[in-house]
Amino acid sequence: MTMRMTGLISGLDTETLITQMISGHKTKVENAQKEQTKLKWKKEAWSSLNTKLYSFYTGALSNFKSVGTYKAKKVESTDDSKVKVTSSNSAVNGVHTLSVKQLASSAYLTGASLQNKAFNTTSYVAAENADVKLSDLKDSKGYDLELDGKSFEISYKTTGPDGQEATVTKTITAQAGSDGTLQSVIDNMNQSLKDEGINMTVSYNAAKGALEFVNNTAQEVKGADGTVTGYEGGIDYTLKTADDDAAKALGISKDGVTVSQKKSDAGENILTMSSAFHVKTVSDTAAAVTGSTKLTDMGIADGTTYTMTVGSGSDAKTYTYTIDQTTTLKSLAAQFSKMGVTASYDEKQGRFFVNSAESGAAYDFTLTADNADAVSKLGLDAASATKVDAADAIVVYNGATFQQSSNNFSLNGLNFTVNDVTVTKDDQGNVIKDNPIRMTVSTDTDTIYKAVKDFVKEYNSLIKEMSTLYNAKSARDYNPLTSDEKEKMSDTEVEEWEKKIKDSLLRRDDTISSLLSSMRTTLNKSIEYTGTDGSTKRYSLASFGINTGKWNEYGQLHINGDSEDAEYKDYDDKLRTAIENDPDALIQTLSSLGGELYTNFQKAMKGSDLSSALTFYNDKQMDKEISSYDDKIKKLQEKMNDVEDRYYKQFAAMESALAELQASQSSLSSLFGTGSK
């Protein structure tokens, strides 16, 4: 930036002088800013009007052009409590009858209470002896223990002829005999141990329900009195298996276990395996049942598969779920809810509640299982549960019978919501009395009249606003204020000043003029109508008592006989008369005029290089012009800054020159002795 010296030598007010000198450039910048501001305000004004025009186009005008608007029907029923009925425009005028024979209903299955109910409860206890079948062996949680055909490694260290220590490994197979008992496995293992030269025996400890391995390698050492004082010469055996099932059966870790030599009479040479052998027992138990109760604790076998069948015949859908040892009553209910029904387990009531996902016979369901008692233990069997079958609704409309899964019917332009039957049946289900509902369908004059009136109201509001904008007072002498100008005025004065400008921005706007002309011209047209007798006649809005008002209303409409229009309320209500007596002529005239105006609006909103789609004004052009002002203002600002810097440089040079001159004069004065004393 140029160094700015302010009249230190010359005594001049440099800044004021330069400000005055560049005022012309500043005015150009401010004028460009004002024009840009006015353009932005104009776009805002048009955007607001565009919103109202589009709302009129999609709302009131769209309804006005629709034939369906003038075919509205109403229906009156003799009993709304049993059947709620509404009418569409396609309903046939006249009296209709409806009998309700049966309501549509969902299927409901309410289970028996499971609280304090005795169940065949399964438990697993240690086998009393080794005669138990291998196939019956379980652990304490009921998981199978597999031994037959499983291999074990037994290793020990020994000293060879060369005096070097070596590890010897033997493989023993737990092979069952023909009877398939645990004892046969033990016998075969002992024989294998003997055959392999391993001084170890295996037996079954009934008290612990587990196998025991005994190391017999050490020799007793006796004292003088004949008592055993110790053992010597024994070796340690290491027992391992790579088979997961075998390791699980015996409780062996992957690192194996050691059967130590006998060192005292304490019995350290006996290794009792950590996995105990159990067998299944079943008993009747009255237990507290909660949502967390496992199905297997209720005597339902692990792996039981439940089947839910929804519907019947070829349309039936089948869902299955297989339980495991973790399945609880609540988790089973959640699974049922994924099987075409809705289910829950109520802990407070201690029972299942199952219902069909929808009403109607097609959604009826049945629950079965591959285990005979698996359904009864849930309290959901036919003997203990309460079942309400799903059913279709059956109605008789004008003598014809209709059946469907829902209580909501649509017949001949009428929409029914059935709440109760209209018939009385005997114990065998035979109809002994029928009180059909009578429904009277007629033209809804009030609704049609209101639709036309709503159109006129919105049309008038739009015409009035557009006319006000077009005929606004000129604000030619008013421009947007600069910051300096605003500081000299009050907030109210600024607001009033800007309002004058904004109110005038769309004055004599060509687009508004074109729209107003299109709207007025179109709705003043007449339509040729050919009656049922072949005669033709021209109709306009005026034919139905819809007329334009005074000249200064700029084409606003009034409805003769409108009770809310003080000036026109006493005129003949031609519109209501036409709705009731000449509907076809009314429909064709109003829908045709509305359709033409709707088309004109569509054309006016068609996108182009100057405007976006669904926009009545040239928004793209305005955006381009606003953007161009940014460039223009920037260039003018840069030019003003350059001129200002040049002036400051010139004044700085002048101040420097004056300073040098002053210094020279002072030197001369000193030289000739004329300086100040």
Give a description of the structure.
By secondary structure, the chain is of the alpha+beta class. Among the domains are: 73-104 and 392-443, no CATH class; 108-118 and 281-388, no CATH class; 128-276, no CATH class. 33% of the residues lie in helices and 25% in strands. It is built from 13 helices and 32 strands. A five-stranded antiparallel sheet has the order 1-28-3-22-23, with no helix packed on it. A four-stranded antiparallel sheet has the order 18-19-4-21, with helices on one face. Strands 7-6-12-13 form a four-stranded antiparallel sheet. It starts with 13 loop residues before the first helix and ends in a 6-residue tail after the last helix.
Summarize the structure.
This protein has 677 residues and is an alpha+beta fold.
| Percent of residues in β-strands | 25-35%
Question: Separation of termini?
Answer: 42 Å
Number of strands: 32
Give the fraction of residues assigned to helices.
25-40%
Question: How many H/I helices?
Answer: 13
Q: What's the arrangement of strands in the largest beta sheet?
A: 1-28-3-22-23
Low-pLDDT segments:
none
Instruction: Assign the structural class, choosing from mainly alpha, mainly beta, alpha/beta, alpha+beta, or little secondary structure.
Output: alpha+beta
Query: Mean pLDDT across all residues, rounded?
Result: 90
Largest sheet: 5 strands, antiparallel
Q: Kindly provide the radius of gyration, computed on alpha-carbon positions and rounded to a whole number of angstroms.
A: 52 Å
Shape: flat
